[in-house]
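batch_manifest entry 22 of 60
target: RNase H type-1 domain-containing protein
source organism: Chromera velia CCMP2878
requested by: lab member K.T.
priority: normal
notes from requester: please return tokens only, no post-processing; we will run our own comparison against the previous entry in this batch. if the run fails, retry once and flag.
--- input ---
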Amino acid sequence: MPTSCLDVWEADWVASWKDIPRGVAMITGDTAGTGGGGMWKGNPIWWRWSGKQAVYSSNWREAKTVVRCLQAFTKLGVGSENGRIVVRSDNSVTVRIINNRHSAATALGDIVEEIQTIERKAKVEVVAVHIPGAENTEADSLSRMSGDVHRKEKVTDRVLKGLSHQASRALGREVSAVRGTKEKGVEGIEVHAPAGDEYQSAMKAATTALEPRILLVPRAVGDSWRRQGVKSRVMERFRVGHRLFEVLPPVAGRVAYGGDRDRSAQRQGSRARTLSQKAKQAGSLSQRELVLASDNKPDPTPKDELVKVAEEIEAAALEASTKQRYEAALRKLERSNPFLLPMRCALDVKMGFAYLKGLKGNEIGTLRGVVRWWHHMHRDEQPPFESDSLRYFFTGLRKLADNSVKTKERLSKEEVLKLIEYWEGQGSLDALRNIAITVLAFFLAKRIGEILVRGREDFILRDKAKPPFVACYIHRSKGDRWGRGTMCPIPLVGTDGTALGQRILEFLEKAPKSGTLFRATDAYGHRWAERPLMREA
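--- output ---
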């Protein structure tokens, strides 16, 4: 956390999976080669991976499991109490990318963006903790389930006969098992097989019913209910692969699909199952090998598209602020002599850097980067900076440079409050903007350049937290070389009663609805025009 003279509310509210605060929603998820699953308050969810998803990396499937669990459980109200959700996973990569809110891998980075989208829509904060694989038994069992096949099937008569025998022996009287809800006047014990989002309602109905009921649920679901204190009796645990259900007769009439995309998805799913059977017969190690060996090879990507992608990747190498510094240094070099570029030999380099004699020492490194960048953009060979004939030249240039450092005085808390009080007396939109900048710069202890580029989507109000705060997301800072980003909390009111986050909220009410928040007044007097506010203003 950044240090300042104001009181800082500690944002690290989860240290490990063993000391999670009370009242925080906990979601547990896990994945296997065939499917994934998750659990929240006894509500299970599981699914099967498609043929294409099954060959993805285990890290991708683990992270995608978190997305599916959040999508399903946020609809049921997870995190609505205090706006916090803890995801428990036995995959360290998933825990790291969720907490760092960044991943260098493109596929995992897309998943991180999906999780952040869910946070903004549900107004929750998601963190992850690592748990040992031995403690993740419930989600692991769900990830190996075969799916909700019994939505379109019914319990077999053989299973009903076995359940009737077990129920008679448990209750001490002769009873018969009845499939589903029984009609009035019919004696027997009801047998239900819930699926998907039916588990919680089926469990509540069974606990409040006057007569006992039999629920066919996965072992992980039953174990979770018993740990929550639900009174239940464990009957026969059916063997893996045992036929519990039989297929219902097909419904008369044809199924109307929504479009060609649905039919295409059905054909792809059918082909994936066919490939899986062929892979087993051929003894292949994975479906990917069989797909590559088959005639159904993907069309090659056009080269012009690859060139565009490569240019986008190169453009992302330099930050906008770095490009601005390079352009300013390039203009200074051209004012010295407009014919110094390109630098193809050691003598060209000496003439190009000669004007830096006696200037700031950091400008030497900046100009080296500028010359490399110019040569790259003009498709020219790189300058010979590593030549032995330039070793003594750069050594002497550094010795003659101005290496003095300006000392900066740090503002005290009282001085910052007086500055805020001064802007309050102005009573203008620019004053409201400057107050928000002052609070962010002093409380977060961040560079002014990192604050001025913030957008509206970088501020999230956590009004259900205790105490409530405004979260400011810094995408990248000078010490964050990999661009993982930092989430900085700002309490609405400090412990001494100083309004902090409230100042940010007041500014957001008047600020532009899209784009950069902090904008300048143009030459015609237009308030907060499209021109962004620069650090020199």
